[in-house]
Fold this sequence. Notes:
By secondary structure, this protein is α/β, with parallel strands linked by helices. It contains nine helices and five strands. The protein has helices at 3-16, 19-24, 44-59, 89-105, 109-117, 122-130, 159-164, 171-175, 178-199, and strands at 32-37, 63-64, 75-83, 138-145, 151-157. The termini are far apart.
Amino acid sequence: MTSKALILLTPLLLACGRPAADVLRQQPAPVLSLELSLPEGPGQAELKRAYLAAFRERFGRGLDTEATAPAPERIQLIVMIGSRSPHSESDARRDRTADQLTSVAAGSPFGLIHSAVGPKSNYEQQVDRLGYRPGSITGQALVLRTGKPSFQEYLRLDPLPIIRRMHPLGEEARNHGGIEAEEADAVAREILALLKEKFGWVPPNA
């Protein structure tokens, strides 16, 4: 391909890759239709209520939880949580023991000392900050539109950025749904930040 042909083709390639950003950057901001997929298990109904409340609070008028827009015009935000189990204390001890055994086998006194007194894992540091063991959230959010212009974009959810958005809680709050509410709020805030970063979308009047 010649340089001239490549120069002519580049704007077309860029245009093909930005329909989501073009639509989501419009003002007023388009409304997103929320769908939630959470892991099966005890307390799922309460967890879903916590997530819905958090998304309504953070997204405000930018969120439609009743799917009122016609299907071709609807922009779906499908949040799929794959795992939300906390890391156990036994996992942390096992990891540290494994590091120590590896250092002994390698004949590395420095490695042994580091594994014994070195810094904790990122997760354990957050446990110390929060006062509880938060869920290690994995999953993704899908931004989807079937009408013209159509698009399908994925936002990956990683545990640590979500956990860092959570706040410390007292014992009473931890025992009365506070951890689930913090988790839901942190996920909503993380997705909101990813939407702004990748597509320039912010809720109306944000």
